[in-house]
């Protein structure tokens, strides 16, 4: 790139006093020096020095005429020219803001690199003088007192709270990245202080500690990481969990009490009558939540079986459940009040049980078949990616294959979990059909309500098992991605538990816990699959997307990263 030089000598000073333009100065000086060797000697210049200076000034004039920085008025880095000129002056370098500042004004961020204006990309650089080697970007904050004070405070807290590994990741950020992070850790205030850092980053009631989860997130975001958690539970998810859990529990109590009463335990009848209304109400809430979630989770990119599960099983089954629970609540209230059960309500509950059971049975069978097929496909893909990951032509190609293998592994484990859940859903549907049929055939028989209660319990168990398996899967998947087995064999880790080794590796990568690393892996893999399989022409990435139950439409750029992430995880 072109760099401009300032050259000062007596001849230039003389012409400048006459207010001659820079382009006119050089020819004037060249004429006076070439025509008078005596003058040259009087000024203390040799002919060789004068020739060199003439060439330098001529080059400078050309550079000023054609440099984009000179035309646009943008600042350029200037460098001292030492060869042959008796007197030179180096202009101060220009500081520029570090890339990717987060909530930090450019005036607060130090220079990490000084780009030189004046030459567009691809322009020839043959006439440019040789560039001097620039020092590596500095990482300390000693020149920025307020930031450095907060930095040292966090350093002390990290040592005290045994988070040196995580702080090491933060310490390895560039100066600009650190300043951006510190600003965020101080509530994005313009002037960081320890008090502001304490207010933003300390957590705890009695014992205050740094919120290291947030420290990790801010540090990774400052490094321009996409830390979006596409699988974060929302309010509707928590409501659904609570409704499913409480309705399953109350249905279990009610069903068990009814069964005990049938077997001769007379005291159980009052329990069944007391719990039945609450069970019906809570189950109704669970059904409403299920219907709402089904509408929110529906997407045109889902496979045919996926759409059938959402609409036919979750939505239709939830609607039938809502009818059944409403009718059951009516009878529960009547029984609790000493009245006979309503025949119409009993018939409605029985019919809804049959309809809802059929929806769950069909959805469960379809889900089981598709999950089994996808599981096998992803297992084959993972095996192929693993082989290519060790024989690729370049390291970049090998890494891409390893990433595809990780995505296939994660998607495959999700399909395995979903296959189990689908089998439970099908069994739940079968119980509901049987219970509803009994209620329609013999309204006074306790068998129907017992079967329906068993179906609710089974559905709750299936949801809990799926949640548990997904939670445990996080640790296994993170260990695979970070190659913890290999880390355990290193001499420096001899005698350490797997948990300690894992934690050390996590902190070295900027994570405070397994959950953060898992969420980042899902986000990164979803982004990789989208960029290659949807936005790009990577057929291997597309095959993984299809393997997790999605249809790719490259014209519409669907599915998006968020849906890919959800299907990788759920």
From TrEMBL:
Biased composition (Polar residues): 7-37
Region (Disordered): 1-37
Record-annotated membrane-spanning stretches: 347-369, 423-444, 450-468
Keyword field: Membrane, Transmembrane, Transmembrane helix
Protein name: Uncharacterized protein
Origin species: Paenibacillus baimaensis
């Amino acid at each position: 790139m072109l760099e401009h030089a300032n050259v000062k000598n007596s001849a230039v000073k003389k012409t400048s006093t006459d207010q001659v333009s820079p382009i006119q100065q050089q020819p004037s000086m060249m004429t006076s020096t070439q025509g008078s060797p005596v003058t040259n000697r009087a000024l203390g210049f040799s002919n060789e020095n004068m020739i060199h200076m003439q060439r330098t000034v001529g080059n400078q004039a050309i550079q000023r005429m054609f440099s984009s920085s000179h035309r646009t008025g943008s600042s350029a880095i200037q460098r001292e020219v030492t060869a042959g000129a008796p007197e030179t002056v180096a202009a101060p370098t220009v500081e520029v803001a570090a890339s990717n500042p987060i909530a930090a004004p450019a005036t607060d961020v130090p220079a990490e690199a000084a780009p030189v204006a004046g030459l567009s990309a691809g322009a020839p650089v043959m006439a440019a003088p040789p560039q001097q080697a620039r020092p590596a970007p500095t990482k300390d904050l000693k020149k920025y007192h307020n930031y450095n004070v907060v930095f040292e405070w966090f350093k002390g807290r990290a040592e005290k709270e045994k988070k040196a590994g995580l702080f090491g990741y933060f310490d390895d950020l560039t100066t600009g990245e650190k300043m951006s992070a510190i600003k965020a850790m101080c509530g994005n205030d313009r002037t960081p202080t320890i008090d502001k850092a304490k207010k933003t980053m300390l957590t705890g009631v009695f014992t205050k500690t740094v919120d290291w989860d947030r420290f990790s997130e801010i540090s990774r975001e400052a490094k321009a990481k996409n830390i979006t958690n596409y699988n974060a539970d929302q309010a509707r998810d928590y409501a659904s969990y609570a409704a499913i859990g409480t309705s399953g529990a109350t249905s279990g109590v009610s069903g068990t009490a009814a069964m005990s009463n049938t077997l001769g335990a007379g005291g159980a009848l009052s329990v069944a009558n007391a719990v039945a209304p609450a069970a019906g109400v809570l189950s109704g809430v669970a059904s409403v939540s299920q219907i709402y979630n089904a509408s929110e989770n529906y997407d045109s990119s889902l496979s045919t079986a996926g759409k059938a599960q959402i609409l036919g099983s979750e939505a239709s089954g939830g609607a039938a459940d809502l009818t059944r629970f409403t009718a059951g609540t009516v009878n529960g209230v009547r029984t609790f009040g000493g009245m006979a059960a309503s025949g119409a309500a009993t018939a409605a509950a029985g019919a809804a049980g049959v309809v809802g059971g059929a929806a769950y049975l069909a959805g469960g069978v379809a889900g089981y078949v598709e999950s089994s097929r996808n599981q096998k496909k992803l297992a084959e893909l993972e095996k192929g990616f693993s082989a290519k990951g060790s024989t690729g032509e370049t390291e970049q190609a090998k890494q891409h294959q390893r990433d595809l293998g990780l995505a296939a592994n994660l998607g495959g484990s999700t399909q395995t979990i979903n296959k189990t859940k689908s089998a439970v859903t099908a069994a739940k549907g079968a119980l509901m059909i049987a219970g509803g049929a009994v209620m329609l055939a013999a309204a006074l028989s306790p068998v129907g309500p017992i079967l329906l209660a068993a179906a609710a319990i089974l559905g709750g168990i299936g949801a809990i098992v799926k949640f548990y398996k997904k939670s445990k899967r996080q640790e296994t998947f993170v260990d695979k991605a970070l190659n913890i087995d290999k880390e355990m064999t290193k001499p420096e880790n001899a005698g350490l538990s797997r948990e300690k080794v894992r934690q050390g590796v996590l902190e070295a990568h900027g994570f405070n816990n397994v959950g953060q690393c898992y969420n980042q892996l899902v986000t990164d893999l979803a982004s990789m699959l989208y960029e290659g399989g949807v936005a790009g022409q990577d057929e291997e990435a597309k095959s993984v997307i299809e393997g997790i139950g999605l249809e790719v439409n490259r014209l519409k750029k669907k599915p998006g990263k968020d849906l890919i992430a959800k299907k990788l995880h759920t």
